[in-house]
What we know:
Layout: H1 3-37, H2 39-44, H3 48-59
Amino acid sequence: MTWEQMSDASAKANIQHTATKVTNRDYLSSMRRLYQSTSILTALLPDESLLYEFLHRLQR
């Protein structure tokens, strides 16, 4: 594998990692808005920190 190929592969991996982080952030943000606007979720998960733990476990 040439240096250029390794550099290209590394750049692609960094872009994918960043895209995944943005997607996860946007997903968590939208779920937080849903949580705040849905009384059922509020009753089930009254503590907002529990929501984040719940969502992180769902993503695994």
